Structures are given as structure tokens and as C-alpha cells.
Amino acid sequence: MNQQSLMLPIQLKRKELGLTQQQLAAMAGLSRQSLNGIERGTVNVTLDSLLRLLDILGLSIAIADPSTDRLAGGKPERALWMAAHGANVSYSGEFTTELLEQALSTGTVPTGYLAHVAQVLDEAPLQLVVKAVAEVARKHHCKPAEIWKNVRTLARITTATRDGLWD
């Protein structure tokens, strides 16, 4: 989710309702400058202010879990594949989904793939790491906390730090 996907509908709805920024800002308890910044995506708005603004406009925010939607639609999870595929870019040897799953589920680094595992832990987008952990936990019928414990073990083995995140 990005700011633009939230802010543009606010501006469009305000205009559709024939409200000026000054009028809407007053209704929402904001300054006109703050509302202008919200609509342009240059102001960090609090959740309280955003919800109040959306309520006045008759808009709402829906929170969805794409992984759940994907599984419900019968589509396979892809986080492990994406993480393993991303680790293949810079290193020799193919780092497969199965190798990454093995590493995350056991806390051991497959022989010859230390750099690949370190790359996933240090360089892969955090959202991808989180999704990969959830995917492995589901496949192995265990709690994600067990897989996170393995991630910390792998981080120690590979000396992946991610600025202290894995400590």
C-alpha cells in the first residue's frame, strides 16, 4: 500500500462532493494546509485524522491479506520461490525453493549455499522474508515463531545482521 492509493481518492471524493479544501479541513478538524499535504501525499497523517477524514467523505479502508486471497483462489504461494530466485542473481549454483525451505524449516544452511541464505536474510525485502516464513510454517504445520527462531539461527551462522534485526 502506498500513500497515493489512499490520498488520490480523498481528493477526488472531496471534489465530487463540491467541497473546498478549507471546508473539508474544517469539518475534519484539520488545517487547510494539512489537508492539502494529505491530498498531495506530502504530510504524514495520523490514523485518527485519516479515519475522521474518510468518515466525513463516506470512504473506508479495507485491510486484505493477499496471501489468504491467493490460497482461497487455489493459487500456490510464491514467497519461497521469489526469495530463492532473488538469491540466485549474484551467486553460482541454483538456490531452489526446496533449499530455502529446508534452511528455514531446520535452521541449517545447505552445503554450498551460505552466501545465498545470507543474501535472503540481509537483502531480500522484509515483506518477502515474512511471507516466506509464513509459507514454511504452513507447509510444515508449525508456528511461525519456530521458523523465526530458525531465521535467527541462520543469521548467526551466516553473520547476516540486517542492522541488528535478527539479534
Automatic annotation (TrEMBL):
Coiled coil: none
CDD domains assigned to the protein according to its UniProt record, in alphabetical order: HTH_XRE
Residues of the HTH cro/C1-type domain: 10-64
Lineage: superkingdom: Bacteria
GO molecular function terms listed in the Swiss-Prot or TrEMBL record: DNA binding
InterPro entries: Cro/C1-type_HTH (IPR001387), Lambda_DNA-bd_dom_sf (IPR010982)
Position of the signal peptide: none
Annotated protein name in UniProt: Transcriptional regulator
